[in-house]
Amino acid sequence: MVKKRVLLFLVALIFSLHTFGAERGFAIIADIDTYSACKVEIDNYKNILTEEGFDAVVVSGEWSNPAELREQLYKMYLEAGLEGAVFIGDIPIAMIRDAQHLTSAFKMDQQVFPRRQSSVPSDRYYDDFDLKFEYLGHDCDDPLFYYYTLSGDSPQYIESDIYTGRIKPTRKGEEGYRQIRDYFAKLFKAREKENKLDVITSYTGEGSFSNSMTAWKDEGYTLREQFPEAGKDKNSLKFLLFNMYPYMKEAVSDELRRKDMDLMLFHEHGMPHRQYLTAEPLADGYDSYNEAARKIFRNSLRRMNDSAKIEQRKQEWMDYYRIDSSWFEGVFTKEQLVKDSLDDLKTGIVLEDISRINPKAKLVIFDACYNGDFREDRYIAGEYIFEGEGTLVTIGNSVNVLQDKSSTDLMGMLGLGFNVGEWMQQVNILESHIMGDPTFSFSGDRAGGIDLRSKDKSYWLQIFENKNHPDLKGLALHKLHKLGYEEMPQLLQRVYDESDEYVLRLQVYHLLKHYKGDYFAALLEKSVYDPYEFIRRKSVFSMGRIGSDAFIPYVASVYLNNYLDKRVHFNASFCFDLLDQEKLEEEFKSQLDKNSSFPDKDKVWNEFSDKIASRKSISEMANDVTAKDKPLKKRLSAVRMLRNNAYHGKVGQYLEVLKDDSEDDELRIALAEALGWFTLSYERESIVQVCRELASLPETGDKLSDELVKTAARIEVYMR
């Protein structure tokens, strides 16, 4: 355990928080060794922030656990108007468990995988003071890691009270300190200049949005709505796609090197050590087809470590494809291994590439898995700010993220002069993090000095009515939602019907789902045909998550007619086992009979029938939840399916299992957690009622009671 030592290096802080100010407090948090090695730069950073209007203080110390630091930050928030904080060096990392519903996609089995792997490193522990956690222990092998579980009586949603960022070096010792000093040197230089956010490049990698062109094209509309200053010439707003060239790595690198680049936005797959830009290039002739096939064979054989199995697999391929052994030449030769390895490096950016690229884009956003995983010594988002000559801030995710995540909500705030932290504070999820200075901003008037802390509903109504920028209107809607504006559903309905802006209608979709009644369902019947593909995509998905048979005609129509929208079409098929399948088949057959667009209707019907049969076979696996004759392991596996598959029609049966005290406690706890994913279900009121009743019974165990309370609270977030 680290010895508790906290030293406060302030002009005069001996907790003189009354001098810290009540307007724009900012805390610069550094471990003692980092502060000692980088004192000049950190103190200069504090002075610059003070000149810019912040009441900045430096807090340097060693903390025996993150709770001590959190308490300090909370005290500053209550007594001194703390607005944000930056963590420099080796600051304790909170590893969050039992809060996967606060992520976009992370669903790793905590019982099967090691806790380091199945926890979410998250600074929401530090910046959302309402969340409640219970301490689970310290990791001796990784001294910065402290494990926490989200309490059942905690709020089950994120609403950060302050914003935070990390400046965590990717090297150890003096090399790391030099990284921090160099980072501040370029930051100070950049803050001396006025710089509008008007040069943007967006890159969409292979596999993003299922390579859907209709999904990709809409970003041209949304970014122009959010950043009207950009797009004045062909170089100021670019949209690059993975298949524009066989290997896009150098084209992307050239964009990152541009001195005028303000924002580089990556939609891609990722790992802590790699950005996946492209796959194997599309073959365009006999020779390239031939070589592509040979490479597939070579890579497959290299993954096998048994010589007998390798020879067996070769023979199987030769028999099946009618080829000879020459197709497998060079599998393990040094020359071929080197060539294949170099070709593989062309498909992505790895850590070692970043110093060569020397990124100059001032802000880089990684809409990708794991690029911001600051558990690792070296990670992509960190490497950019330390190895890039001009990159000042990156935003990345510490675990995997949802492919259908909306990653640019309210991002237009940045073009108006709000700092990066102020924007991210509005849209945080558990895994999203700022690397670098969270107070960094592009030039702008912050829309005339908007007070983000105002709790006056009439103030935000005026902002909504009087401001023209769609993201300012969206910001006002979010604030009104948080403040509990009484006529919010009616306002949202009106905004959707009257707004021409894609990004504003999307905020209506995000917010209206939190209200009970028929408001959201009525919206979906319109929004499933919205011009914006992302709204269509999420709307049909939500129809399945609600599960009402009233949506069957819409799901059938979308599946039948929107086959060019890959993600929308996929989400429609994802609804097949969440609705009444017999009624869906009848509706689809009726619509197909009336449709004159398909020359071969039998083929369309057979493809639909195969898809619905496939989904039915998946849903039948969930029957094991209620099968007492099945082994516990199999029943638990079926329970875990419910997180992604809300089988509404079986909720009554699930609740009977939940209420049955003869059932295994492990099963009941897992089932209680899984039912927490039924947030939009037409059965959600029944789930909440049973969970609340069971949790109140004296014979209900503490662990089950905690999960029941958590599930009820999770669902009630969507039942305003």
Calculate Rg over CA atoms: 27 Å
Side by side, the strands of the main sheet go 11-10-12-16-17-18
What is the beta-strand fraction? 5-15%
Terminal CA distance: 44 Å
* Unreliable stretches covering 5 or more consecutive residues: 1-22
Estimated helix fraction: 40-55%
**Overall morphology:** globular
Mean pLDDT score: 94
SS-based structural class? alpha/beta
Total of DSSP H or I helical runs spanning 4+ residues: 31
Largest sheet: 6 strands, mixed
Tally the beta strands.
18
Q: What does this protein structure show overall?
A:
- It is built from 31 helices and 18 strands.
- Helix 22 (533-546) runs parallel beside helix 24.
- Strand 7 and strand 8 form a beta hairpin.
- It is α/β, with parallel strands linked by helices and 720 residues long.
- The strands form 4 sheets. A 6-stranded mixed β-sheet has the order 11-10-12-16-17-18, sandwiched between helices. Strands 1-3-2-4-9 form a 5-stranded mixed β-sheet. It has a 4-stranded mixed β-sheet with strand order 6-5-8-7.
- The radius of gyration is 27 Å and the shape is globular.
- It starts with a strand and ends with a helix.
- 46% of the residues lie in helices and 12% in strands.
Question: What would a concise description of this structure say?
Answer:
This protein has 720 residues and is α/β, with parallel strands linked by helices. Strand 7 and strand 8 (145-150) form a beta hairpin.
